[in-house]
Write the structure tokens for this entry.
Amino acid sequence: MRHLRLAVAAVAVTVVAAGCTSATEEPGPSGGEPVPGTLRVLASSELADMKGVLEQVRKDTGIAVRPTYLGTLDAVDLLAKGRAKGAYDAVWLSSNDYLRLEPAAAEQVVSETPVMSSPLAIGVKDATVRKLGWKPADVTWAAVGEAVRDGRLTYGMTDPSRSNSGFSTLVSVASALSGAQSALTDADVRRATPELTEFFKGQKLTSGSSGWLAAAYDRRGDVDALLNYESVLKSRKDLTVIRPRDGVVTADYPLSSLTSTSREVRDDVRRLTEALRTPAVQRLITDRTLRRPVVPSVPPAAGLDTTRRRELPFPGSRSVADGLLDSYENKLRRPSRTVYVLDTSGSMREDGRLGRLKKALTDLTGDFREREEVTLMPFGSAVKSVATHVVRPENPRSGLDAIRRDTEALTAEGDTAIYTSLQKAYGHLGADDDTFTSIVLMTDGENTKGASPAEFDGFYGRLSEDQRRIPVFPILFGDSDRGELEHIADLTGGRLFDARKGSLDGAFEEIRGYQ
């Protein structure tokens, strides 16, 4: 099983188009063309909230930043493969801890300076804190684990293989429950496995992004807590934010120059870093983002507890980190259960669309986890077949080979019965609180057959409360209708993925963080 997402689906967001890249550099795969006076920065996704701060720095210094936002673990993978050379001038991740475990990535970085910090924390409903009888300053990871084991606490967190907040959660829990005093080892992980297994039974929500996690948490209403960075949790007024007394992993957001850049570019990165660490900008950062300043003379924003906490040990090697991720994916977390509702109507014969679907699904089998249940439900004028396979730990290859055979057998014919097929998918799934259950809808056209949108809305409204918690993740592809698919995602609590801007392979891969 792969435990790191190998496909990179970066989304470039331009903050300012004027203003420190050498114009002689070659354009990169997603960093954009070099523009004199602009730094192309590969940045962790959560740094999107720094837009206003970066604009102020541009006014103060003339240095503009053009960020490309990507999950921290994906960014490290991109660096390790050498794809940042010529594409970016600097890297700004939530932490360089994971980067240091990958020599091929670490050698791409020539400097690093922390800009701000935010510890991992637990945001718990006020009513749950009272019911548990907790005093927030005294709560330990063992107490959290005990509440989970007793069925008194459930929570949501991001996917550790795609999000640094999720990975930091996994490391924090493993380090604390194992009692590790120095770098986390395989022996520590093995020692903590029984407690970790119980701990992750309490995870009710998984997500590839903090934003969707918060929305799913609000929609469900029956989950007690969120595990994320303190800055994310403090932005909510409905949670008591707890930093466990026995320690956490902290993000320190180092801004790093790349070895492939010129002396002039590195000097601009240095000037940008210095500007971000001035007292005035540090105050702006903590007030606007609720992260902690790294300059001692600047106090944290109001409401941020200044009590010291131990920094929990990080894995001592890449093999330990990968082993921890692999254990989480295939043993510790709840298994996944997904129905892939796949448009194989006649229009899928056009432009090699069916071939692209087959390739994307075949490639995806390398990412399926042990214990995962996968149902393929191709449709045209109606559902053509329903084939369910389980990736069993004792013989994972058997289930994966069966999925590949069914994928290769797909043919394109008929009209497009989107809503009738979704109804069939919900009927197939029923309700199961012991899995992460979802529906993936891939269509290249509008609904032309069977149930109407209004009929599906009525059908969805009549589902049980548990079934209405099953999200649909539609993929925009070919000639599909964005409005139609956005409505399905909004109605069911899912999220729309756009394969027209990226690739079908990338869309399927990105959804994995939500399954």
